[in-house]
Amino acid sequence: MGNGTSIGRVRGLGAAKEGTHHWLVQRFTAVGNLLLLVWLAVSLIMLPDLSYATVREWLSSPLPAVAMGLLIISFFWHARLGMQVMLEDYVHEGGNKFAAILILNLVAFAGAAFGLFCVIRLALGGA
Amino acid sequence: MAQAGTRNRPLSPHLQIWRWGPHMFVSILHRVTGNANAVVGLAILLWWLGALVSGPGAYATFAGHASSWYGIVVLAGVSASLFTHMASGVRHFVLDIGAGYELEANKMWSILSPVIGVALAAIFWALLLLA
């Protein structure tokens, strides 16, 4: 913090206090999301039907399982970063903002963990 | 003197100050669709994967809800939201490299982004259901 110039007084006083790394990772995961959403849409179209047996057999094979695992990581990471920006903008009280972002992190990690568990179970768990 | 100039600093004008334009609409839409995807889209993804792991009965329950009238409404909305966020996200990539700020180009892509998103969702459903 500077003690004289205007820029020194306002530096770090935005809604998020910091952000270049956050901004970049939001873009990295966005590129991942773009590729993986196209993969998911094309894959669903290519499947002969969306029955239990068909979808289960498809997600049990190696490449779709890996792609779905990456999709879960990229989607949840991107969602966590994006919702954090929303909370930083609209939750003004410091304590509430901290609590909201804390809960967001817990839910995002829990959701991603559940999704990855399902994919691993489908790929490795047999029947 | 360290406090000089910190009081009564001008705040950036909010939405109601500016004349409305498509760039404002697509910016707000990007945030709304992103948060909708995060909350509703990811919940459905996890339900689908969880049902797949749990067995044919759970999958039939999921498929029953998904193919009901309210399920179709939700899935149509989520798919439109996903593809719209994707289209306006690609617009953001262009803006991030410093391109597309000319008034006419910016206005055109602000209008086209959501149109392309909804069109992609419609094409997706057409290919999925007709193939």
TrEMBL record, chain A:
Subcellular location: Cell inner membrane
Membrane topology: Multi-pass membrane protein
Regions crossing the membrane: 28-47, 59-78, 98-124
GO molecular function: electron transfer activity; heme binding; metal ion binding
Tagged with keyword Cell inner membrane: yes
InterPro entries: SQR/QFR_C/D (IPR034804), Succ_DH_anchor (IPR014312), SuccDH_FuR_B_TM-su (IPR000701)
Required cofactor(s): heme
Cellular component terms (Gene Ontology): plasma membrane
GO biological process: cytochrome complex assembly; tricarboxylic acid cycle
SUPFAM superfamilies: Fumarate reductase respiratory complex transmembrane subunits (SSF81343)
Main location group: membrane
Database matches in Gene3D superfamilies: Fumarate reductase/succinate dehydrogenase, transmembrane subunit (1.20.1300.10)
Record's keyword terms, sorted: Cell inner membrane, Cell membrane, Electron transport, Heme, Iron, Membrane, Metal-binding, Transmembrane, Transmembrane helix, Transport, Tricarboxylic acid cycle
Pathway assignment: Carbohydrate metabolism; tricarboxylic acid cycle
PANTHER family: SUCCINATE DEHYDROGENASE HYDROPHOBIC MEMBRANE ANCHOR SUBUNIT (PTHR38689:SF1)
Subunit structure: Part of an enzyme complex containing four subunits: a flavoprotein, an iron-sulfur protein, plus two membrane-anchoring proteins, SdhC and SdhD.
Function (record text): Membrane-anchoring subunit of succinate dehydrogenase (SDH).
Protein name: Succinate dehydrogenase hydrophobic membrane anchor subunit
Organism: Novosphingobium marinum
UniProtKB/TrEMBL annotation, chain B:
Xref: PROSITE patterns: SDH_CYT_1
Cofactor: heme
Regions that span the bilayer: 39-62, 69-88, 108-130
UniProt-recorded name of the protein: Succinate dehydrogenase cytochrome b556 subunit
Function statement: Membrane-anchoring subunit of succinate dehydrogenase (SDH).
InterPro entries: SQR/QFR_C/D, Succ_DH_cyt_bsu_CS, Succ_DH_cytb556, SuccDH_FuR_B_TM-su
Entry's localization field: Membrane
Listed CDD domains: SQR_TypeC_SdhC
Quaternary data: Part of an enzyme complex containing four subunits: a flavoprotein, an iron-sulfur protein, plus two membrane-anchoring proteins, SdhC and SdhD. The complex can form homotrimers.
One Pfam family, short name: Sdh_cyt
Cellular compartments per GO CC: membrane
UniProt family annotation: Belongs to the cytochrome b560 family.
Keywords: Heme, Iron, Membrane, Metal-binding, Transmembrane, Transmembrane helix
Membrane topology qualifier: Multi-pass membrane protein
Binding site for heme: 85
Cofactor note: The heme is bound between the two transmembrane subunits.
Alphabetized GO MF terms: electron transfer activity; metal ion binding
Single GO BP term: tricarboxylic acid cycle
